[in-house]
Design goal:
The structure holds 2 protein chains of 2 kinds.
Chain A: H1 3-34, H2 41-57, H3 62-89, H4 93-115, E1 130-133, E2 136-139, H5 140-162, H6 164-174, H7 176-180, H8 186-212, H9 220-233, H10 238-258, H11 263-266, H12 270-281
Antiparallel strand pairs in A: 1-2
Chain B: E1 2-13, E2 16-27, E3 31-36, H1 42-50, E4 55-61, E5 64-65, H2 71-76, E6 79-82, H3 94-101, H4 108-121, H5 138-151, E7 156-160, H6 168-185, E8 188-192, H7 196-200, E9 205-210, E10 213-219, H8 220-223, H9 227-234
Parallel strand pairs in B: 3-8, 3-9, 6-7, 7-8
Antiparallel strand pairs in B: 1-2, 1-4, 4-5, 9-10
Classes of the chains: A mainly alpha, B alpha/beta.
Chain lengths: ~300, ~240
Amino acid sequence: MGMGTFIQLVVDGLSTGAIYAALALAIVLVNQATGLINFAQGGLAVLSSYIAYVFVRLGLPLILAIIVAVVLSFFIGALVERFLVRRFERGDPDTAVVVTVGLLTLVTGLCAVLWGYNNLGFPSLFPLTSVEILGAVVSVRSLATTVTIVVIMVVLQLLFLRTKLGLALRAVADNPASAAFSGLPVGRLLMVGWGLAATLGAIAGVLVAPQLTLTPGMLDTALVYALAAVILGGLSSPIGCVVAASAIGVLENLVAVYVPFIGHDLKIAVPFVLIFVILVLRPQGLFGRKVVVRV
Amino acid sequence: MTLLELADVTAFYGPVQVLDGVSLSVPEGGSVGILGANGAGKTTTLRAVSGTVRTGGRITFDGRDIRGLRPDQVAALGIAHVPEGRGTLGQLSVRENLLVGAYLRKGRKAISADVDYCLDLFPQLQDRVSSRAAALSGGEQQMLAVARAFMAKPKLLLLDEASLGLAPSTAKTVYDSIRRLRRESGIAMVVVEQNANLAFSLVDTATVLETGRNVLTGSSAELKGMDEIRRAYLGG
């Protein structure tokens, strides 16, 4: 196997990594804005993709259908916070996390009831042609997906660190009761946080739907990898998550080919071995900040 | 003119009645202390004002009925609560904490000037502006909590046990700065404080609570050294 194969594997890995990264960013967004890990993130993203699909079938141009789905997703996310998650926010955070696991099951089931389990074709936003870079064949679609994810990552980083809304979202996630004493409308900001995360999930969904084809469980595996990326990269770091997600994508590809006893069947174990090592050596993640608790 | 008026205020935590008809009157620019033993209802009285506990009775601020408002709505009217145990946002930097304090304000220049004022008021925070609040010492966190409350430019500051858990010298430093803040800004204050000397250094009048009721109200000069005060603090 020559250099060409190696580069091809890396490039393919980066493009699958972009899918994990998109979902990981949505998870980080909810965590930064609400302090929770949202397991339903993948499910909501799939629901958004189905919504876009419905509008495409109704005859809307693809880009318009996607925009409508993304906007609707904001409201779905906000409503989920307002009417479901809020009931559990004041209690034990673990309960709220379990609620999101339940929500994942519910949303997946709902999609199955409405659209069935059959794979549905979803049109691609980007052309299906490929270009050759350094001897590797790269599809324009994966290239464009990766670029989109990187742009979103930068925008998110700027939102959190450079805007008043970002500061307010982080303040509420840090300590809602304390934030309210400074006049922050906690409930509304939590809704905005969930809405933004759902928006991001929707973008991730429609970006990967053409490749994976639309099924209720489309993002289940990706969610597992995304969570791995979040743990590796650090919950507080959008950049860390994208780096970790790309690394996972590349690594699983390389290991499958170059380490014979692992192969394609065992490659899913790779990120978990990595998580285990990282958690032992650097529990806050590669890029994350240590949370200090004073008593 | 009266800024804050509590009349016959009651409060419950579940079935337990904590306030049983508390009254309090804070004039504009005035500073009123709430004294009493543990469990007398001092903290709850502040929480009743800031909307973090369900209450009965009448609470008016600036001539407006504020009972039943949410904490963020109360804050928007010009009441800043510095809760017991410091109200800082641990994962945010000192500067970010101060900016969150100014969330409802407009005008970058004025906000930036007030950040500088806070750092002048609490020089210990100067070297820590980029540190996360959780990494500060207890005294620095208390200073940050007060500074963050000031950043809202409130008309009234609710100050709960600002000396709690601090070394005596640190507590004195914190109170010196709060006195200066009061002198220079004219913000009215309601001060809950276990340490009577610190309390009397900051307030004009005070009320003593016992099991959720006022038992004694008077000027600092009158109350200083009275037997009832000593009894209230010793819980006898």
